[in-house]
Amino acid sequence: MKKAAVAEQRVNIKILLIDDHEIVRQGLQLFLNQQDGIYVTGEASRCQDAIALVQQTSPNVVLLNLNTEVAGSLDCLHELRVVNKHLRVLVMLGQPDADMQYAAMCNGAMGAVSKSDSVELIVKAIRAVHAGEAWFDGAVIARMIGDLQTRAEGCQCTLRGDLVLPGVSLQGNNKGELVLDDLEREIIENWRRLQAELGSEHQAQIASLTAREREIISLVGKGLRNQQIADRLYISVITVRHHLSSIFSKLDVEDRFELAIYAYKHRLAPLPIMAD
Length: 276
What we know:
This protein has 276 residues and is α/β, with parallel strands linked by helices. Helix content is 51%, strand content 13%. It has three domains: 2-136, Response regulator (Rossmann fold); 152-195, no CATH class; 200-265, Arc Repressor Mutant, subunit A. The chain is elongated and about 55 Å long.
């Protein structure tokens, strides 16, 4: 009993798995239960069962397989958030899909991974989402920010929670307030904080970049993967990786996501232009 109690105290991330394939759920449960501080509280193949488990087991994070071929996948995401608005949902896609990532974000997901990602990366995403961080491609976050800006008429307004964005206002709101959901507000707050951090240290970092490194940063900001960058610049994937390692070191970022945010923030890459 004492050992069980000690083990329980170490668990700070309780996860619920939702996937229509039993073998996938079993594999994920086996792997995740071996991770320090992570415990799978339950698994479900249907949304109705998952909602019941959310109420019974109070998970911190839900790992939801977002099957684009099954109607109602996004509805399930929304219903989970209705049951517990504080629930952090990480969706898993069959393959990388920026449009589905964006749809998931709009329905309350905190992050997205794909089944082609390594299990180590999925664990990292789970920990990040549990900590309150958004885990999306940089281009997806930029798209959300761009869409918020299209809701503006060009003047400054105050956002809920005393958050101010210069040049942004909400059409049709006579109080001059842009009403955001919790996820939008969190991302915008992070964006504003990043914008306020530009200083001499960052200028020195940027000045240390080579012309080739700037090219690669711009392409990362456009959402290109290593192979696509290599093809575009007529270099090898290994060379791209070497450049990225150098870039990460110079700019003090840990991964492509942070690099994309840094690039948008410091205008090393343009915000993606979204189709109408």
